Backbone:
């Protein structure tokens, strides 16, 4: 992931991720570790990014979108993801989820006492941010 994408992801993450409970909620920042940023051979202008995200108890991310294809693999804990117009998903260790580019969503750590860790794999245009917060 290039610096701009990683910086935006970390800043947006507040997941990165600002509290979904409004401005009064305090922000809980996840730990985001860049594992890979690789242009894709044969697909001009496209790259893959892999990041490890560790979130604390009570973590939430408010309404946001992903401009690229996102795959999530849960390693530890559970997170709830609510994509507009889709059934709510709860991911637990070993679960994998594919998120289409564009739809609005919110997410949170299911536990208020334990953290969660997941891998995020992004495929999209070079320089696309991982997450774009709704205004």
Residues:
């Amino acid at each position: 992931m290039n610096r701009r994408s990683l910086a935006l992801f970390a800043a947006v993450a507040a997941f990165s991720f600002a509290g979904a409970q409004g401005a009064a909620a305090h922000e809980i920042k996840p730990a985001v570790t860049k594992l890979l940023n690789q242009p894709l051979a044969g697909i001009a202008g496209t790259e893959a990014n892999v990041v490890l995200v560790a979130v604390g108890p009570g973590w939430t991310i408010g309404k946001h979108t992903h401009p690229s294809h996102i795959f999530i693999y849960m390693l530890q804990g559970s997170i709830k993801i609510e994509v507009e117009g889709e059934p709510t998903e709860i991911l637990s260790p070993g679960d994998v989820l594919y998120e289409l580019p564009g739809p609005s969503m919110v997410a949170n750590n299911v536990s208020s006492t334990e953290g969660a860790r997941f891998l995020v794999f992004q495929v999209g245009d070079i320089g696309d941010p991982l997450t774009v917060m709704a205004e």
Confidence is low (pLDDT under 50) at residues 1-26. The radius of gyration is 14 Å. The chain is about 5% helix and 45% strand.
